[in-house]
Task: inverse folding
């Protein structure tokens, strides 16, 4: 039986590439989305995935979304906590809303989603939780005190959850992408982005498919001994120890 994977923010950007890859690999995929119905519908049509609308910032809504997926596809065995937003501003000009929106969507979402699936994974003795962090949670970034805080939080969460579930066949890992060529980069001023690309040793932005390849590895049977890890995919821009 094909395993069930739930990808939050799974219809655009990196998440879209992950949904596509896992569907191609034969998983039953549910792709979460919050507002962009057109992008979600395109994903459903092109990849044959289930799409599920929901707000990762709400514990109740996540519970409802997980229940819908469980009913249609079966219990969630692989969770990819990918949904994320930016609200960039230098900290001395950052509003409380810019701070809390990013913390809610990028970090509270880990609790809101994972809490609904972890008991089932433990009971079945198999599970994969894959969290998408960021290079900027590792090194910091001007204009991203909110995002860097949330993405560093993702790394700590990953390690604690990995420890708690290691004996239950549930691995918990995170991927820290560098600058990936997605819509999220459209909010970065062109001249700033040019400066960032100049600092990437590989000399280009990353691709969503490159992150999806790593997700596919972590989701598989062969990755059973990898847990609590932070895998960096950033073209050499930051070499974490
Ligand atoms: N070090 C310290 N301070 C710096 C700095 C640096 N390297 N560069 C700029 N600043 C400060 C300036 O001194 C200035 O502060 P003052 O107001 O005190 O003078 C301020 O930053 C810049 O102010 P500006 O008015 O020129 O610019 P702004 O406020 O309109 O925008 C910004 C600033 C929001 C940081 C903007 O440059 C920006 O969006 N940068 C990109 C941030 C970024 O990389 N985001 C990543 C998005 S992609 C993503 O998040 C995915 C992922 O995981 C990688």
Result:
């Amino acid at each position: 039986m094909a395993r069930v994977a739930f990808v939050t923010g799974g219809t655009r950007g990196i998440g879209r590439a992950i949904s596509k890859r896992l569907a191609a690999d034969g998983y039953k995929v549910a792709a979460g989305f919050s507002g962009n119905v057109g992008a979600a519908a395109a994903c459903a049509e092109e990849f044959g995935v289930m799409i599920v609308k929901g707000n990762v910032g709400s514990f109740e809504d996540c519970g409802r979304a997980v229940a819908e997926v469980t009913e249609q596809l079966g219990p969630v065995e692989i969770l990819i906590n990918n949904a994320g937003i930016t609200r960039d501003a230098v900290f001395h000009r950052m509003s409380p809303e810019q701070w809390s929106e990013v913390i809610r969507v990028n970090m509270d979402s880990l609790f809101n989603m994972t809490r609904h699936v972890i008991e089932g994974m433990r009971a079945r003795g198999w599970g994969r939780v894959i969290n998408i962090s960021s290079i900027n949670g590792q090194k910091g970034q001007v204009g991203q005190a909110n995002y860097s805080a949330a993405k560093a939080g993702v790394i700590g969460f990953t390690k604690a959850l990995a420890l708690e579930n290691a004996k239950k066949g549930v691995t918990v890992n995170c991927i820290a992408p560098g600058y990936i060529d997605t819509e999220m980069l459209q909010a970065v001023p062109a001249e700033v982005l040019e400066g960032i690309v100049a600092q990437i040793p590989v000399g280009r932005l990353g691709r969503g498919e490159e992150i999806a390849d790593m997700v596919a590895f972590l989701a598989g049977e062969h990755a059973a001994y990898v847990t609590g890890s932070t895998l960096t995919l950033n073209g050499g821009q930051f070499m974490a120890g």
